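Deviations from the work plan: none for this task. Representative record:
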Amino acid sequence: MEDVVSPAQSLSKIKHIILVLSGKGGVGKSSVTTQTALTLCNMGLKVGVLDVDLTGPSLPRMFGLENRSIMQSREGWLPVSVKVPVSCKGSLSVVSLGFLLDDRGNSVVWRGPKKTAMIKQFITDVAWGELDYLIIDTPPGTSDEHISLAEQLRWCKPDGAIIVTTPQNVAVADVKKEINFCRKVELNILGIVENMSGFICPHCAECTNIFSSGGGKRLADQFSVPYLGNIPIDPRFVEMVENQGASKPSLAELYKDSSLFEIFQLILRKVLDQNHPPRV
Amino acid sequence: MGLVLGNVENSGMPPEYELEHPKAEHCPGPESENAGKGDACNGCANQSVCESLPKGPDPDIPAIVENLSNIKHKVLVLSGKGGVGKSTFTTMLSWALSADEDLQVGAMDLDICGPSLPHMLGCVNDVVHESNAGWTPVYVADNLATMSIQFMLPEDDSAVIWRGTKKNALIKKFLKDVNWDYLDYLIIDTPPGTSDEHITINKYMKDSGIDGALVVTTPQEVALLDVRKEIDFCRKAGIKVLGLVENMSGFVCPGCKGQSQIFKPTTGGGKGLCAELGIKFLGSVPLDPRIGKCCDNGESFLDAYPDSPASEAVLQVVESLRDAVGDL
């Protein structure tokens, strides 16, 4: 394996890099990534989002960009930009393998080496331009994609990783493995978010802990990492994702008015207060 | 003393050759007679590795066929998406089938980086033993055996930081050297995605015959999107799709009995997808918070709450599945 000793040129104007990780699938890595990006963007920051889930890319769907594609320029691949409200000073752009597929139902049946090569291209060949934050969404597990990312980012001084879990023990057990992975590759952990923590019944406003509760907090205590907060299940987020569109209000606008925005501001406040110095 | 991972790495792992670079376009394949000699091979970074590989079919495949020859039905549980309930469903399926004392059931966990079956079957602390007959799986009941990497980890929460090649070698070992004995059903739980584990299981089991795949999804489009890819994979790999189950569809509030759709089927849900792709729809299983609790405690949900609508739905799916593999 060739050594990556200096950070890629493509990342040279990016101030902060954050990874979103979880050992478990379907805990909401992509929705946490999406919401982190939306929140930072609504704070007036320039945000880029990189989707390294190659066999199951969800971000194009999340940002309503399913028919878009990546353009090539002299500087490299141009990320797809997301519409933001006029009043918002921030910007939002996305890169995902989903943009390179002909048909949304096509499967990407790749073994490790091919995935590794793709990730390397994503890190080195994208012309992100100036960004305040680059958020990297990952697939579940601790395998090829994660090892490759760790190798590529080794010298890039990322701020660290936000770890996502759901409350039940079975999920926490997998997430523990991910934390041990971070320790092994010396990736800083910014904190743990507990997603799908309770569902508020729209009929009677009673909160049911569908996937039990408290797993994230216990995990944070056990590994002495910061606990960033919990996010309830809110079917309205999915509605928002479905309701965005060219002629309709942008996702960033819809999101600003939702109750989740407040929750996420609190979560990200805890991350931003850690005051990681900008990389550049 | 059972096996721990240290041993697995040092002894008895079948040789696997790693291509360090992605394959070239029009690659004849590292197993082909022309490996390293084709037009596409000129300039490919893998050329020298490919040329020196042993040619022809993998000599271990006959051994795998032999080892699996006493297994009547082999069913894969698949989903492109993570966290939709593949392991939960594998577990419930295993409990449901093994409730019939005449059936011998095995559950194999192919999720190397995030094994969940041992937690859900309540046998996390068990270990695998090695004898001259091979690796003995862990028996949860007289007629229910299971195998997972979790049984070999030095610590409960050790991370398995492996690239694909190493995972493939372990999967091969699971197929070739686990002494399942006679089984009516082998249910194989898989990780999300369409990558190494999936390609490998298909490659090694093709000759012993896979009955088909049970595809699990949740109702929202973000999940269906990935599940479509998995079905596309099944088609490419020639795996028959036995049917699709929609999990987590609908939730009944225990307080007011009001129904809500937590993961909204905005595009028709699992049923719509089945109609679109011409797949059999096996049923929908509603969310029940007690399912998660039972999985956390390693208990059988079907035994603990036989009256739950979820239990009834699962049993119905099991019936249709047995029907689909021609067992009833």
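The CA atoms of residues 84 and 264 of chain A lie 18 Å apart.
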